[in-house]
Design a protein that fits this description.
This protein is about 5% helix and about 50% strand. It is mainly beta and about 200 residues long. The strands form four sheets. A five-stranded mixed beta sheet has the order 3-9-10-7-8. A hairpin with a 2-residue loop joins strand 7 and strand 8. The longest helix is centred in the first third of the chain and has 6 residues. The two termini are about 35 Å apart.
Length: about 200
Amino acid sequence: NRGYAPSETMTGSRIATKIVDLPYTVNMLTSEFLEDFGIFELADNIVQIGSFTGLDIGGNFNLRGFQSTYQLRDGFFRLGRYGSSNVDRMEIIKGSSAAIYGRTSPGGMINMISKAPKDASSQKLSYNFGDFGTQRLTFEGAGPFLPGALGKTRYVFTGSHYQREFGQDYARNRNHEYYLALDHVFADGSKLFLSGEY
């Protein structure tokens, strides 16, 4: 009943904090929004966030008129492209409020939050198609994994194959994205998190 607006953010405070408690603005795009509006490739201009354009496959972007090559993935420095299938949400802080991360550009900071393992088992398979030979096949699975006496383990796995043709001969874009994350909580409450993506 609140649309696509999330109630918490990790960006800026580095911990899950209610947006209403922050002294600055954080713009967000959730995975539900990206899926419902057919944003299959983050290299497209994200026009839903004001003054944020030019996100390319190298991870460069333009925010408030300033070019930047410095982004974050789950709060850590990251270079390179992003896949929309394994991103839970995009969080953007504009201007000097992003200085909490130390090195920053005058435009602000972008933080990609990965999808997290879940307690409840779930699987989802989707297929999209459209003009210009657009096709996208996506699978997502999450839930408990190998329960034992040493604690509990959860996982999330996403895989996506995307392709789109253009108006010119032999012009085609193909993306293959895979992401796996394991989260283990030991009996004493300590936690181990492993993730990898391709």
